[in-house]
Each structure stands twice: as C-alpha cells, then as structure tokens.
Amino acid sequence: MSITAADVNKLRQMTGAGMMDCKKALTEANGDFEAAIDVLRKQGQKVAAKRADRDATEGAVIAMTNETNTRGVVVSLNCETDFVAKNEGYVDMAKKMASIAIANFPTTKEDLLALSYEGSLTIADKLIEQTGVIGEKIEIAYYETIEGGVVAGYIHAGNKLATLAALSAGVAETAKDVAMQAAAMNPVGLDRTSVPSDVIERELEVARDMVRQEGKPEDMIEKIAQGKLGKFYKENTLVEQDFIKDSKQSVAQYVASAAAGATVTGFRRVGLGV
Length: 274
Description:
Blueprint lengths: L4 H11 L3 H10 L4 H18 L7 E8 L5 E9 L2 H4 L2 H17 L4 H5 L2 E3 L2 E2 H12 L4 E9 L2 E6 L5 E7 L4 H14 L11 H17 L4 H19 L5 E2 L2 E5 H8 L5 E8 L3
Antiparallel strand pairs: 1-2, 2-5, 3-4, 6-7, 7-10, 8-9
C-alpha cells in the first residue's frame, strides 16, 4: 500500500522517531501503525544491545512531589551526550516518567520500569524505543523516593542535580529551603547516626595522623581526634550544617523555628557528577 506523508508524520508524532525511520517502519508493516511501532521497538532493541556497555553519564534529573506534599520522587534519566540531555523532548520524557512515578509511587526502579508509559508501552519499552530513535544508550540510572509530614523538591538549573527534603511538620517552602541546602552543601548524611562507619573511621584515622604529626602527646590524640570528628559532623551532616540563608543557625534550628518542634526526617540527592 501507499504510505503518505500524513501517515509518516502521525507515526513520528506517536514515537518521536525520524521521518525516514517512520517511513521504513510503515512500509515494512504495510501501513499498520501498531506493527510499525513494533518495528521501531525491535530497532531500538538492536541499538540498545550494541550500546549496552556505553557510559550514560549525561541526562536529566527530575524531582517531583505529590499534591499534598507528603511524597516525593527523583528520577535520573541518563543518556550519553549533553546534546541529547538538553533536548526539550528528552526533558519532557524524564518529567513524564517522574509524574508516573509520583502517581504510582513504586518501591524499586524495577517496579517503575514495569509501569505503563502509554497504553501497552511500559517505561522499559519506551527506553528501548527511544534508544533506537536517538541512537544513544538511555536508562533510568537512579530512582529515589521519600515520604514525610512535609516534602519538597529542588531541581538545579540544567537538570543536572535534584534533591528532596522531608520534614516532620511545617510548610513546603521550609522543606524546599532544606532541599536547596542539600543541593548546595552535599551532606554525607542526615545526622551523626546516618554517617557510614567507614567514613567515620577514615576521618578519625586522618585526624589521628595529623595530631601525631603535630607532636601532641599520645594520651591526647584520641580526644583531639574526636574533637575534629565533631567539626566534620558540623560541616557534613545536613541537620548540623550552618543554614545557607542564615549562618547564625543550623539547619535543625531553622526548621524548628519555622514550625515549633519540627525536624528534618530525611533527604535525597541525585546528581550527574555533582
């Protein structure tokens, strides 16, 4: 059958594939749109297999919350080049995947990939399809969730970094301030109890070596090292950090003053090399 320009354009609008790819797919499928989409998917599978070992270090990181500001998700849709990552259609695809995530709130990345993107097309299927369309490895590299009394997100300019912050109580604006803090200051943990033990031991070992080199008495080394560890906590745990908008108070103090007794209950930070 004859394939018209209107047919090609319709398939292009449905899939985002190039005009020639759409025409070839429709020709192979004898004008059947569903079959043509399958042809494009198979093409995507071939490209995906060839590029499976490529590094996908660029992309768009999207944070999103639900309408009641009690749940949040971060989706990092990764690709190979910054050129693709900055494409409006690519960013829109990342945002749609984040909106599907917040609507369904799956626990794992695998559960997210199994959700419907559009009709019978799952998110996993869409990634394969777009790998064929774009010609680059495309994957959801990171998927994070958080819940709390109040949750807010922050996306840094360029979609290279996104954060979420959860508070026990308060308003979204306060939570957003904390999310911005996490983006700017890159804390290693929420509080002292959440810092990994290997990080603590490494900091203590560095501190002990420094004190020994300074010639301090052996019986004072551990006490001084613990003091240096306390400084590390103040600089690197979210609740103890100086609040970036008012360094006279810590993040914990800011949150408690904004809503009586409120605390930071969690945060998530996902970035592309930042």
